[in-house]
Every structure is written in C-alpha cells, then in structure tokens.
Specification:
Elements: H1 46-49, H2 54-62
Length: 63
C-alpha cells in the first residue's frame, strides 16, 4: 500500500484465523494493472519485489 499522509490506519476484515499458505502477493508494478502510484515507490520488501504479475498468478492458480 501507499499512504498519502504522515500516519495511516490499516484494517483487515477476516472471517477465519490467518493461514500463511493462503497469502497472495501481486507485483505492485505489474504493467497489466498500470497502477498510477501518486508518489514514488521508495520501499519494497523482498517478497513484494519478487511477486508475480496478476496474469502469472492467475495462470498458476488455475493450474
């Protein structure tokens, strides 16, 4: 995510206990999504840097 203010609150809605095996990461800079980030991206975790694009994620998910 990208915050446009000095402080931010993030809320997640969950309906069952967290299972790391269900975590999903999609590339923040996927050209197919073409997200116009309002600020320069300055910090990206290793996990997010290595994330697949949406098309690759869907292809592997559908098998």
């Amino acid at each position: 995510f990208q915050s446009l203010t000095e402080t931010s609150d993030v809320s997640y809605r969950i309906d069952r206990p967290h299972d790391p095996a269900e975590d999903v990461t999609i590339a923040f800079d996927d050209p197919d999504l073409a997200i116009d980030w309002p600020l320069p991206v300055t910090s990206v975790s290793a996990r997010d840097r290595e994330a697949p694009g949406l098309a690759d994620f869907l292809k592997h998910r559908e098998g």
